[in-house]
């Protein structure tokens, strides 16, 4: 068995999408600029769902976040309009994509639990429906 030379290994690693591996939503950070002028009180929590057209069936995700009783915000990124449930105002366009990138979202859909404009928790790519809230 022949070992791969270092150059081959480096090229193989370079072919991987390492930028996605480096993307990490950082808890405690303030949200980047957004269009939500009707802010919730600082002690209240809200949920932000960041998604794209290729996330698949988001029905269970929407059911879970809408059932939380929290204010729900939707950010549809990557320039392909995708609907959200009735009553959820969706932010789309280049600014929405820039918002997700400024947050360093690594996988869609991302569910962000926010309080006072700061990230409390984040789920990227998978979401079980548990926001980890204590009643």
List the SSEs and their pairings.
Elements: H1 6-15, H2 18-22, E1 45-51, H3 59-66, E2 71-76, E3 90-92, H4 94-103, E4 110-115, E5 118-124
Parallel strand pairs: 1-2, 2-3
Antiparallel strand pairs: 1-4, 4-5
Keywords: Signal
Signal peptide: 1-20
Protein name: Penicillin-binding protein
Short description:
This is Penicillin-binding protein. 24% of the residues lie in helices and 21% in strands.
Q: Could you please describe the fold and organization of this structure?
A:
It is a single chain. This protein has a five-stranded mixed beta sheet. It has one domain (28-124): Glutaredoxin (3-Layer(aba) Sandwich). The termini are far apart. The radius of gyration is 17 Å and the shape is globular. β4 and β5 (118-124) form a beta hairpin. The model is unreliable at 4-22 (pLDDT under 50). The chain is 24% helix and 21% strand. The chain has helices at 6-15, 18-22, 59-66, 94-103; strands at residues 45-51, 71-76, 90-92, 110-115, 118-124. It has 135 residues and is α/β, with parallel strands linked by helices. It comes from Deinococcus taklimakanensis. Keywords: Signal. This is Penicillin-binding protein.
């Amino acid at each position: 068995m022949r070992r791969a030379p270092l150059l081959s290994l480096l090229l193989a690693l370079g072919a991987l999408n390492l930028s996605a591996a480096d993307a990490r939503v950082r808890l405690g950070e303030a949200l980047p600029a957004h269009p939500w002028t009707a802010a919730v009180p600082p002690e209240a929590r809200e949920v932000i769902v960041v998604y794209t057209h290729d996330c698949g069936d988001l029905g269970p995700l929407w059911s879970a976040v809408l059932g939380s009783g929290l204010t729900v915000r939707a950010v549809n990124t990557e320039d392909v309009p995708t609907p959200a449930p009735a009553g959820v105002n969706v932010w789309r366009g280049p600014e929405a994509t820039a918002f997700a990138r400024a947050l360093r979202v690594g996988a869609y859909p991302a569910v962000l639990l926010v309080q006072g404009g700061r990230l409390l928790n984040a789920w990227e790519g998978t979401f079980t429906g548990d926001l980890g809230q204590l009643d």
